[in-house]
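Structure first, sequence second, as always.
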């Protein structure tokens, strides 16, 4: 009989100590090393494995002069046992102070993560110690289902198929550049035609900004970035003028690493907290949403 089927039928009767001894011995292929790991004697591990083999009615190891080798039955059984212990361990690790910790995985566009969320996230973890928060950064193109995300903070218009989106904040775009380049521009939008205009993959942003200031948009030849963070890093290095959300780069503006040569700005979208419509709210999801709304209502620095 297939050992997996035997294990499934008799799992209620199989002793955990014997299964643990088998799993450790299978990893080490040595009873002595397994005994050291489990803090028991070599004889105890050998006895537990022999007991398990008698229960199953089959040999799990071949005893060799210098160690062990798994039989075909042992090779089939070991991943089942290892997975079971891993799953039990993962669940037990989620208990803290008498309460089960809930895993919450949130995908965050990198600009928002570094420019706003990072400085505030400790407030959430302190207020909700029962939530095991996992932050995954992305470039705003995210597949919630495919990446196993509970929530995602995205930038755009919020109209995504199969997605429920709650508004978080509006962060208008404005030109940002190095102090030296700002001095050269001198507050004249027409002077931007002499500079490299750094772009995102949303091709309409610079034309919309020039329209807002009543100036003609020059030909756009600058490099295209999938991250405002990288774009602004290029601007700081003097490689061109970025059109980016100033609110996400408050520290750089305060330190004088970049400047805003113009007051004019355009709103092309906002940040949203998104979830699959098919995904029901969990307590951790609701807690994160409420916390994010409260923090966002305080504005940006």
């Amino acid at each position: 009989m297939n050992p997996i089927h035997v294990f499934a039928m008799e799992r209620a009767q199989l002793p955990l100590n014997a299964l643990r001894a088998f799993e450790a011995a299978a990893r080490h292929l040595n009873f002595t090393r397994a005994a050291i790991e489990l803090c028991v004697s070599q004889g105890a591990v050998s006895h537990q494995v022999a007991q398990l083999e008698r229960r199953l009615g089959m040999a799990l190891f071949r005893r060799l002069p210098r160690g062990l080798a798994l039989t075909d039955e042992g090779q089939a059984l070991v991943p089942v046992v290892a997975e079971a212990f891993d799953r039990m361990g993962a669940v037990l690790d989620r208990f803290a102070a008498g309460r089960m910790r809930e895993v919450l995985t949130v995908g965050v566009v990198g600009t928002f993560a570094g420019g706003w969320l990072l400085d505030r996230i400790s407030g959430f973890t302190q207020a909700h110690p029962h939530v095991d928060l996992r932050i995954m950064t992305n470039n705003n193109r995210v597949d919630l289902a495919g990446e196993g995300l509970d929530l995602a903070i995205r930038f755009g218009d919020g109209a995504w198929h199969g997605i429920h989106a709650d508004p978080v904040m509006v962060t208008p775009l404005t030109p940002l550049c190095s102090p030296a380049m700002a001095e050269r521009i001198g507050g004249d939008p027409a002077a931007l035609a002499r500079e490299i205009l750094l772009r995102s993959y949303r091709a309409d942003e610079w034309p919309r900004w020039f329209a807002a200031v009543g100036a003609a948009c020059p030909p756009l030849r600058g490099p295209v970035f999938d991250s405002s963070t990288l774009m602004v890093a290029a601007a700081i290095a003097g490689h061109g003028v970025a059109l980016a959300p100033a609110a996400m780069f408050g520290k750089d503006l305060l330190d004088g690493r970049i400047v805003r040569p113009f007051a004019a700005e355009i709103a092309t979208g906002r940040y949203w907290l998104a979830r699959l419509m098919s995904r029901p709210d969990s307590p951790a999801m609701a807690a994160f949403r409420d916390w994010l709304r409260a923090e966002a209502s305080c504005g940006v620095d």
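Margin note: The longest strand covers residues 102-109.
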